[in-house]
TrEMBL record:
Organism in which the protein naturally occurs: Lonchura striata
Protein name: Enoyl-CoA hydratase domain-containing protein 3, mitochondrial
Mitochondrion listed as a keyword: yes
Pfam families hit by this protein: ECH_1
GO terms for biological process, alphabetical: fatty acid metabolic process
Amino acid sequence: MAARLWRLRGRLTAAFSSAAGAGRAPPAEPLTERRQAGGVRTIVLNNPRRRNALSLPMLQSLRRDLLHDVKSRELRVIVIAAEGPVFCSGHDLKELSSEDDVKHHSQVFELCAEVMTLIQKLPVPVIAKVNGLATAAGCQLVASCDIAVASEKSQFATPGVNIGLFCSTPAVALGRSLPRKVALEMLFTGEPLSAHEALMHGLISKVVPEDKLEEETMKISQKICESSKSVLALGKATFYRQITQDLDTAYKITTKVMVDNLTLRDGQEGIEAFVQKRKPVWSHSQEEKK
């Protein structure tokens, strides 16, 4: 048992270190790939050789793909996936060595925080499709998404403590997704959660067999695409706004938003379609009903 745990810790540390011995030459392939069909944009982390580490260029590429034509009515859902056996190993530790100055280190962490918060500010739901290991800032990325679907083989960890770099920024997302004591155990020990443990504690939404991961992710995406983009955007923004408030304030915020929702063209269209027993025809517009 001890040997097995030692081997597992070794794999986690290797993933977190993200090819620390490799040079910094940019890969031939783009760091992220973006494709879109039927309202669903899939962004693929595409640097498996470096375990999809969130290097500064990777974060910049991910931000570009998230923001690309984000107000288009054709965009309804974003899915973040990855190539290779590691979903994302976290920061590239080569960028955090003493060879780089504090200014560069700050740039890395500030851009990472910007991307993580951007995900929750986008007007469409963002789904993490996880098939493998997600460590440190990679685990933070999963926790920052609105929905996360994972294969049974996936694992989640914040092993920074094992190399002397406590996962303080990942702790922000973990502490808002997991019970405090579960998050702190992950942060203090670096030990991983299995996919089923992550589901039980609320880090992810669903666990499916690996061969069903694409099907289940698309099923959720297509269901979201059936709703009004404007209504979903209002609902998502309100959810994150109220969740940090006390109960009375949260109800004041959401009561006003419910009234605002009724003024939207799609708010009235949905009610009229229900009364008339027909399928709604969404405008996906923020315009008010006249």
